[in-house]
Write a structure and sequence with these properties.
By secondary structure, the chain is of the alpha+beta class. The protein has 2 domains: about 5-80 and about 145-220, Alpha-Beta Plaits (2-Layer Sandwich), CATH 3.30.70.20; about 85-145 and about 230-295, Alpha-Beta Plaits (2-Layer Sandwich), CATH 3.30.70. It contains 9 helices and 14 strands. The protein has helices at about 20-25, 35, 85-90, 120, 150-155, 160, 175-190, 230-240, 245-260; strands spanning about 5-10, 55-65, 70-80, 95-100, 105-110, 130, 140-145, 170-175, 195-200, 210-215, 270, 275-280, 285-290, 295. GO terms for molecular function: 4 iron, 4 sulfur cluster binding; metal ion binding. Its main location: other.
Amino acid sequence: MSGVAIYYDASRCTACKGCQVSCKVWNELPSPMEKNSQEWSGSLQNPPDLNGDTRLVMTFREADNDTAWGIDWAFGRRSCMHCDDAACVVACPTGCLTKDEETGFTILDHDKCIGCQYCRSACPFDIPRHTGVGLDGMGIKINKCTGCIDRVRAGRAPACVTSCQPEALDFGDRDEMIAKAEARVEELHAKGFSKARVYGKDECGGCHTIHVLKYGMEMYELPENPEVPQMTRVEDTTMKILAGVGAAGVVAGLGLSFATGIGYRRDEMRYDEKTGDIVDVDTGEVVRHIDKEAGER
């Protein structure tokens, strides 16, 4: 696999959030108080999650241990994984989300976004966020990490990487970043961190964000076997069928889908491979059926 990758080493990260700030500054993203202020929830993480104005969040996890402080920190990075087999790209009906062939990054074109939010529904990492309100005026637009594709094309590293003082972040050829991650994991194993592992090498067809997880996956809340949901591939087939009626018909169909409550979330519906039905997991009701010859009905 060719391309580049962002390298993140959780064992070196101090959660200073310099990367988080750099991302905001370079991409000219606001930090409104209503999105960043929060009541005490037991966590020092801020903001609590990604939002329409925040593409990168450093996560905070605490665990009991035998040190004098009684806790240990597991700092993590939450942002786009830039999967080679990207569910968001498969789900996007307008071509807003595409793969950059040279870098491997998943990039976006805001002008093509219609605010359907299918990308967020499909993403196994729940990364895409949207800004704006209302489908009627198409005011909702996707926002997520682009790998600072503008900087990379100019021969520079992503903004987050340039501001990392403890060298937890790096950027370069993907194969080199994987080799660096594997060597670091061996060092961590030798130091007694038996659960340390590389994440992103093979997941979702291979990612262009490579993580070194000091404590394994559990502390970082990453999925074990992320993949494009089968339902998303069904949706992609359906959209290609609908494309025959023209772009206006596709947009109208998307608006009707969400207006009638059949826009899906992966934790609310499932795909039955035997029947082709999309079923509500709570009620068992058939929400949608795909006929292979006739299309969706």
